[in-house]
Amino acid sequence: MKSLRFTLSGPLACFRQPDVNAKVYFTYNNIHKVALLGLLGAVIGLSGYRNADLYGQGEKLYPEFYEVLSPLLVSVVPNVKNGYFSKKIQYFNNSVGYASKEEGGNLQVREQWLENPNWTVFLAQHKLDASIWDKLCDYMLRGQCVYIPYLGRNDFPAQISDVCLVELSVSKSLRIDSLFLYSGDLNTLDGGDPSQYLFVETAPTSLVPKHNFYEFGRYIFTNCTLPEDELPPYLYSDGVRQYSFY
Length: 246
What we know:
Number of strands: 13
Mean pLDDT: 92
Low-confidence stretches: none
Structural class: mainly beta
CATH topology: Alpha-Beta Plaits
Oligomer: single chain
């Protein structure tokens, strides 16, 4: 299987969690699939979340980037020890005036940011339209984009490097070297000693039609092995490591 591989990084990132919106905004540890599709949509010029009425458009089930790119399969490898990026809470003022109804028009924001995130990302065409896949590969390989891709906030431009096409083969190893979605019993994971690690995070996997709320799944990153009958689908290897696509 042909796969488009690249390194995605930046000094800072913030993929805001929607379940806490008071006092402090928190970020997910890794770029999730919906955010990654949005970033790729920016590369080839697809529109994002916006009020359809303002643009004289009928109501749509999904933003354009998601409607077009959701058939794509992705695999993400966090390039950091044990899959955990360092984070810090930043404190700043938003004084544009229309940001809130705070007294004086000044909104005081506390927000958690990822520091120096770095991922290796694999893309697989799967059921994506061939013309869109070719366009995406062409833009990525030539280092072009229509809109500036960013890491969760437009203050944090994304750095995309080492873009290339690679050949992957179907694999069924019990250890997975990328993030993967797993809803089974964590106690069934085995091995990894003496430096066993297990990173678990519930994060968005898809969007609900029309209202575009997130749907969530449990992302795992570990050096443990899985029971053979609980391996996720779409496992591929480059001959050295095995990656889960979702």
